[in-house]
Aminotransferase (Hymenobacter artigasi), 402 residues
Amino acid sequence: MNTPIASRLAHTGEYYFSRKLRELAALNAAGANIISLGIGSPDLPPHPSVIAALAQAAAQPTAHGYQGYQGTPALRGAMAEFYQRQYGVALDPATEILPLLGSKEGLMHIGMTFLEAGDAVLIPNPGYPTYRAVAEICGAEVREYNLTEATGWLPDLDALAATDLSRVKLMLVNYPHMPTGTAANMPFLTRLVAFATVHNILLVHDNPYGFILNETPPVSLLAVPGAREVAIELNSLSKSHNMAGWRVGLLAGRADVIANVLRFKSNMDSGMFLPVQQAAVAALALGDDWFRELNATYRARRKLVVELLQALGCQPAPGQTGLFIWAAVPAGFADGYALSDAVLAEARVFLTPGGIFGSNGNGYIRASLCQPVGLLREALERIQNIKKDRHAERSEASLPRE
């Protein structure tokens, strides 16, 4: 029997990293010993208090049943306190916060709640590939807005306003931006809210990177006056608290919008495991010492990754935030795919080609900071050895032959 797939998947392939990780696993199984600087999965553990809270809750015999679709009052309260303390944003934990099984899940819930055929969605180019996938699966028209180095990786809102936006229902934004590391900027976010207000567009702000290597205080879009009327915000403990595999995220915003997303979500899952919720409460209570220690580790790693990229002829721009370094591909390589393939083949180091994030990323490469210093040093040495070997080959080729 050959069962046709649904038309909603006609333009949506398997997620790039799903395929690539399988390829790298096959190479490693064959003895390649790949050092992957691709995916942004923190290799560091959560704080010991978080693990202790998980273990303590899991030991309770009543902790293993189905949970409420909105999360526990304790978790929503901890999320509200975190937003007040870190962003200066007051949220009603009963109605303006929805815990999620990771913010990636939340993107799909938002799309399925608000999008249908005939709607249009503004997504960044370059940007997180899931934004496009969500729009396509929901049957909406994808409209890219360009982000380029020349404009500081910010959209040209005036140029967008000059287009026909009558069918645009959502605009996906992400600052600090992945993959470029561009930091959030309050004057720009204020203009963004004004733009959405004029054009009746719901802003969906994806905000998981604000606490990693950010030299300015983290910013929430909901802190902008008037934002709550036109914006909702996704956040996550994956990067900020080293809990990527725990799948803890949140959606924050106006009560009626949250209630509508819950209508869809409540049909898709049966709540978050209670011990994970208790652990998340402990994580959200951590103070600034946690972030200082975390960023000291990433700062040491960033120095090595920048050196590695420079050894390839790439020049990363300063001032990037988040778990990655974004850099332009040097002359001699057609694009990031060509550079990534060459480094993988010759040094057994994997770097992410910028083109997976959109056509404006074709000339770039991205490297993750989610490997220990020892492995980063080894990756650097492998790349330096490539250059030595190439130099030796060129020198040998220039010797006179007998």
